[in-house]
Amino acid sequence: MQVRTRDLFLARAADEPAPEVLALLLSGLPDCPGTVPSDAALADALLPHARHPSALVRRAVARAFGRCGGEERVRPALLAYLRDTDGTVRSQACRALAERGNVPPTYARH
Fold first, then answer.
1. What backbone phi and psi angles, to 5 degrees, belong to 69?
2. At the N or C end, where does the chain have fewer CB atoms within 10 A?
């Protein structure tokens, strides 16, 4: 029996201690077959890592947040990345927000 790449990545991301590997797992999740933009499991896998101490991981999360089109739960964390201490995280947050489309007025003051 084959294991779906998406399921493998989801399982590994929950326990992966190395930031370099975790970043690859998280940034690859949206591209796995069977993952759709409104997939709640994708947001569930990303949100626990939103405040990771590694900028590499936060950048990967921001990238993947841009692909969570139907999940509004990720928007506050993504907007918070606009104030991240790391410039590459802020840059990726800008790209992700552009992918997601317009920001509702309630979030525009962030």
1. -55, -40
2. N
DSSP state of 102: P
Which of 50, 48, 13, 49 has the alpha carbon at shortest distance from 28?
Answer: 13
The domain defined by 5-107 carries CATH number 1.10.10.10: no
Q: For residue 41, how many other CB atoms are within 10 A of its CB?
A: 14
Q: How far apart are CA 51 and CA 102, in angstroms?
A: 24
Query: Model confidence over 73-85: pLDDT tens digits?
Result: 888 999 999 999 9
Question: Whole-prediction pTM value?
Answer: 0.84
79 residue type, one letter = L
Domain ranges for the chain = 5-107
Q: Give me 49's structure tokens.
A: 């890592």
How far is C-alpha 101 from the chain's CA centre?
Answer: 16
3 φ/ψ angles, rounded to the nearest 5 degrees? -100, 130
Instruction: Report residue 30: phi and psi, to 5°.
Output: -60, -25
